[in-house]
């Protein structure tokens, strides 16, 4: 028998959203930045098909003062419905063609891979050395948090 009192956490809806990854991302941001508001967040890569960027943008839009920088080729740009949602909430965002344009301004640099299975063959640029050595980079911490979260879920 199913009960209406059992909490359910949506693990995603296919290619649109990834809420469990967003919880991990929010935790990592809180741990590394000490806050979830008043952040300058750059999202780079496949913003069209990358469900993690859709979910994280919507989650961070719930906190005051956040600003978004979207960096992607036109063919992989953030979907219009996300941009419309940000506009409706009065949240600042801008489109860019390179990381260098915004690197000095951002607190969070969120890199996502090209979803080859969704988009077919797309030319993927190599990571720039500025990204790998930036103060915004913290994949080791995120991996540690993910391991702990996975162990707790089992």
TrEMBL record:
One Pfam family, short name: OTCace
Q: Where does the source fall among the domains of life?
A: Bacteria
| EC numbers | 2.1.3.2
* GO molecular function term, any single one: amino acid binding
Task: Please note every region of biased composition (Low complexity).
Answer: 133-154
- Would the keyword Membrane turn up in this protein's UniProt record? no
Gene Ontology BP terms: amino acid metabolic process; pyrimidine nucleotide biosynthetic process
Q: Which reaction does it catalyse?
A: carbamoyl phosphate + L-aspartate = N-carbamoyl-L-aspartate + phosphate + H(+)
Which pathway does it serve?
Pyrimidine metabolism; UMP biosynthesis via de novo pathway; (S)-dihydroorotate from bicarbonate: step 2/3
InterPro entries in alphabetical order = Asp/Orn_carbamoyltranf_P-bd, Asp/Orn_carbamoylTrfase_sf, Asp_carbamoyltransf_Asp/Orn-bd
Give an example GO cellular component term for this record. cytosol
Residue span(s) of domain Aspartate/ornithine carbamoyltransferase Asp/Orn-binding:
38-115
Which keywords has UniProt assigned to this entry? Pyrimidine biosynthesis, Transferase
Q: Where is this region: Disordered?
A: 125-154
Aspartate/ornithine carbamoyltransferase carbamoyl-P binding domain residues? 5-31
Its recorded name reads: aspartate carbamoyltransferase
């Amino acid at each position: 028998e199913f009960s209406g009192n059992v909490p359910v956490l949506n693990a995603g809806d296919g290619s649109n959203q990834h809420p469990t990854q967003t919880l991990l991302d929010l935790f990592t941001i809180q741990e590394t930045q000490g806050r979830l508001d008043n952040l300058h967040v750059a999202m780079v890569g496949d913003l069209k098909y990358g469900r993690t960027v859709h979910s994280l943008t919507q989650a961070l839009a719930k906190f005051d003062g956040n600003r978004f920088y979207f960096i992607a080729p036109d063919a992989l740009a953030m979907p219009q419905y996300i941009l419309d949602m940000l506009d409706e909430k009065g949240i600042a965002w801008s489109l860019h063609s390179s990381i260098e344009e915004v690197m000095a301004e951002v607190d969070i640099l969120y890199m996502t891979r090209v979803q080859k299975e969704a988009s077919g063959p797309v030319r993927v640029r190599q990571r720039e050395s500025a990204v790998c050595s930036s103060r915004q980079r913290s994949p080791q911490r995120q991996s540690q948090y993910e391991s702990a979260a996975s162990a707790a879920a089992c």
